[in-house]
Write a structure and sequence with these properties.
This protein is of the alpha/beta class. Helices cover about 40% and strands about 20% of the residues. The protein is built from ten helices and ten strands. It has an eight-stranded mixed sheet with strand order 3-2-1-4-5-8-9-10. Strand 2, helix 4 and strand 3 form a beta-alpha-beta unit. Helix 6 runs parallel beside helix 7. The longest helix is centred in the C-terminal third of the chain and has 18 residues. It starts with a helix and ends in an 11-residue tail after the last helix.
């Protein structure tokens, strides 16, 4: 677990300075990292697991029931493995949180020990639905990502992969996912890793978009994209221009 004193150590300061000076498009080699996907039996989780594994990443799907995870992994193929959530977290270097919003806090509270020291990528969108359509929910902590940071004090929490179409991600006929991924976090070194993971998926870019305090509006934008997709019968994503 990183402490305030650790963050001010010479080695930490050197790493931070190097991260800031690096060309933002000079991406790290993350091909050797094991990526766990908690909520990997849901549409978004399955889609991310499939795309990352298809790009050559080692992927483990996590679920509350190991059998469900193993069944989903078998259906996806590509060397993906399935484990119960805690074992998935223990075996992974990077853990994507793709669980439903209503189970977000409970899941993270139960896995705080296993996620200690891990790089966590929260892609959960707190949304509600009524007769008027989708609308954003603002958690007490400010966002799902900030809730994750509060519940996982020993983890390095980032936020990314919010605006992706699960339909496109899971479609084996689609070679490229032409979209940008907004990446947020407190450590440039950690967001660099997430950007590099996003770039492993053909057509996708990871774009640094600020600290976790800015995560709410990124999560909320999904409500707008749902409205776009319904109106135009599309699977809209985002592109950031001039970068």
């Amino acid at each position: 677990m990183t402490t305030p004193d650790d963050s001010r150590s010479p080695n930490a300061a050197t790493r931070a300075k190097a991260a800031l000076q690096r060309d933002p498009w000079d991406l790290l080699d993350v091909s050797g990292l094991v990526v766990g996907v908690l909520g990997g039996t849901g549409d978004q989780g399955r889609g991310l697991a499939y795309r990352l594994a298809r790009a050559g990443q080692k992927v483990i799907i996590g679920s509350r029931a190991a059998e469900r995870a193993q069944t989903a992994a078998g259906e996806l193929g590509l060397g993906i493995e399935g484990e119960e959530n805690a074992e998935c977290a223990r075996r992974s270097d990077v853990v994507i949180i793709a669980v439903p919003w209503d189970g977000h806090a409970k899941t993270l509270q139960a896995l705080a020990g296993e996620l200690d020291g891990k790089l966590v990528i929260d892609c959960v969108n707190p949304l509600g639905f009524d007769r008027k359509g989708a609308y954003a929910i603002k958690p007490e902590e400010g966002s799902a990502a900030e809730q994750a940071a509060a519940l996982l004090p020993g983890a390095r929490v980032t936020a990314a992969f919010h605006h992706l179409s699960a339909v496109l991600l899971q479609d084996p006929e689609i070679e490229q996912i032409d979209t940008d991924v907004m990446v947020l976090g407190e450590s440039r070194a950690d967001t660099d890793v997430v950007q590099a993971l996003a770039a492993r998926i053909p057509g996708m870019r990871g774009v640094f978009a600020g600290r976790l305090r800015n995560a709410h509006q990124v999560e909320s934008l999904v409500a707008n994209l749902i409205s776009v997709n319904r109106r135009y019968k599309a699977h809209a994503g985002l592109r950031v221009t001039d970068v």
